[in-house]
Amino acid sequence: MQATHYFTAPVLAIAALFGCSSSAQAEITFYTSQAAYLAAIAAPGVDKFDDLPFWALGPNYVERTAGEHSYLAWSVAGQGKNSLLYGAGSDSDAWLSTDAATDYLTFGNFSDKVNAVGGFFFGTNADGAYVPGQSIRLNVLDANGTEKLFTVDNTTSGSFFGFVSTSQLTAFQVSAVQPNGDPIWVASNDLTLGSIAAVPEPASYALLMAGLGLVGAAARRRRA
Q1: Contact at 8 Å (CB) between 119 and 91?
Q2: Which pLDDT tens digit goes with each residue over 107-144?
Q3: How many CA atoms lie within 13 A of 154 on its CB side?
Q4: Fewer Cβ atoms within 10 A, N terminus or C terminus of the chain?
Q5: Which CA distances in Å does 194 have to 54, 114, 172, 191, 198?
Q6: Exposure string for 102-125, b = 16+ CB within 10 A, e = fewer
Q7: What is the pLDDT, as a whole number, of residue 53?
């Protein structure tokens, strides 16, 4: 499902601050396969969150790295409410979550050349334990103002989702769709950032073809 105006006000303010002035429409591709996502990006870096303590983090934000990339993570609550991040999971596999079930787990202020964001996203209970079959909202925004929103159902701890844009990414937000019953918290594991492979300019193609032509001519001369 795709929608607009989903991002909360603080994230949209950041997008306006770092927004790109280009009028070109960016393209964002949504992936549900980790293998396909990794095949589409360059310089992948993974933040496993295994260094996180198992309690509330914050209240502002945490500075994180994923390989050669850096970013900020924070939690966004409703207006006038405090918001914290929360370390969940286990000693062997930690996850990043929010302190309140209705909060938005948010990633932004990405370093240069981050065009891709992905990871494992799923629901947990109040104790931070995985709850199968939950629905998760994923929303991404790039520097050109292009926004994509998807709601995915029946997630598992092995459900991978990723976005790749032709433009620099500005923000990425994940939240849980609250069921009729006990509240559900969203969790993120193995956040994977990356770039997109550089596409040669037309002039580069011309030089390449010219070079191949010279190699072919030399080969013909040697045969003669």
Answers
A1: no
A2: 999 999 999 999 999 999 999 999 999 999 999 999 99
A3: 1
A4: C
A5: 27, 5, 14, 10, 12
A6: bbbbbbbbbeebbbbbbbbbbbbe
A7: 85
Total length of the chain: 224
**What's the CA gap between 197 and 218, in Å, rounded?**
32
Residue 180 amino acid letter: N
- Residue 7, pLDDT > 60, answer no
Bond prior to 202 in cis (omega within 30° of 0): no
State the CB neighbour count (10 A cutoff) for residue 70: 17
